[in-house]
Design brief:
InterPro entries: HotDog_dom_sf (IPR029069). The protein is of the alpha+beta class and 139 residues long. It has one domain: Hotdog Thioesterase (Thiol Ester Dehydrase, Chain A), CATH 3.10.129.10. It has three helices and eight strands; from the N terminus they run βββαααβββββ. The strands form two sheets. Strands 2, 3, 5, 6, 7 and 8 form a six-stranded antiparallel sheet that branches. It has a two-stranded parallel sheet with strand order 1-4.
Length: 139
């Protein structure tokens, strides 16, 4: 985990891969709750050989990133967007996933700092999902 006093200090860690200290088991209850919430009736997410919905994995990125990067002084932080989202490999329900994240850019501007992170959700060492995440910190 990286802990910094201000968002701009994240710039010292550009290019260094960080891995989540603990994984997340995506169990059947989590998948069922997600499916009920979004109304996804795709049969590949149900039954004995069910796979985790890719959008459920995508929704875990903020949780993982908050566990990797602790930022002190800021008024507010916002998820500004996802880019280049790719679902690479299915993840079976009940599997444990981790995050590998690399800070790609830290751009301070007047009263905010934009942080871009290249993310990979891993099932074991296999890449299940890739996405570029942009966060904005108001300072």
């Amino acid at each position: 985990m990286i802990t910094v006093a201000t968002p701009a200090e994240l710039g010292r860690f550009i290019g260094q891969e960080q891995r989540s200290p603990s994984g997340l088991v995506v169990d059947a209850a989590m998948v069922e709750a997600f499916l009920a919430l979004c109304g996804d009736g795709n049969p590949i997410h149900q039954g004995a050989d069910a796979i985790v919905p890719g959008n459920l994995l995508l929704a875990q990125l903020p949780r993982f990133l908050q566990a990797l990067f602790r930022v002190g002084h800021c008024r507010r932080s916002l998820l500004a967007g996802y880019r280049a989202v790719r679902f690479r490999r299915p993840v079976p329900v009940g599997a444990c996933v981790h995050l590998a994240a690399t800070l790609a850019a830290v751009t301070p501007a007047r009263d905010l700092v934009r942080v871009e992170t290249a993310c990979r959700v891993l099932h074991g060492e296999a890449v299940a999902l890739t996405a570029d995440v942009t966060d904005v910190y108001m300072v």
